[in-house]
Amino acid sequence: MKVLGAVVLPVVIVLIIGAGLLRGVKIFDCFLEGAKEGLITVKNILPSIVGLVVAVGMLKASGGLDIIVKFLSPLSGITGIPEEIMPLAVLNPISGGGALSMYELILKDYGADSYLGRVASVMMGATETTFYAITVYYGSVGIKKTRHTTLAALIADFTSFVASAWTVRLFFGS
Question: Rounded to whole angstroms, how far apart are CA atoms 69 and 132?
């Protein structure tokens, strides 16, 4: 099975190059054009990404994350999301890296097979880094107004957070 995984990518590359040669496509020129478009995309979204990373760093360093989690703690009892998971729920829509480090802390502190570890695991698999995705996708095509996208995505994230806790409780108990 390991051999198959090591062979698939080179075979796909050879097939793509072979198909291009058969059709008379100038492969290197197409490659350069794609690389140029990729760099233009990076240039367009870089300011938004930098702003997002700085904002997340400031939120964590200033203690703002702790204040937000404390403010949202009553919601924990109503929704069934464990209070220990709330920092992950707050960070997940904002920063994948921040959420991943919080997830690792939860697994380290409570264990992967604990109720909290399972809820955190399901939550990480069921949600998206909303603001990052909106920044990248909308920023790459120059959309400035997200209209209802942000609210709808945050509602979907919230639904996933609650469903994660309920699903783990349903299948594994608390």
Answer: 20
- pLDDT tens digits along 29-60: 998 999 999 898 888 878 877 887 788 778 87
**What pTM value is reported for the model?**
0.68
Residues 68, 70: Cα–Cα separation, whole Å? 5
Residue 7 identity (one-letter amino acid)? V
Instruction: Write the DSSP symbol of residue 149.
Output: H
Residue 44's alpha-carbon distances to 85, 138, 142, in angstroms, are 34, 10, 8
φ, ψ of residue 28 in degrees (nearest 5): -65, -40
How far apart, in whole angstroms, are the C-alpha atoms of residue 79 and residue 161?
9
Sequence-ordered list of residues with C-beta below 8 angstroms from that of 153, at least 6 positions apart, any chain: 93, 128, 130, 133, 134
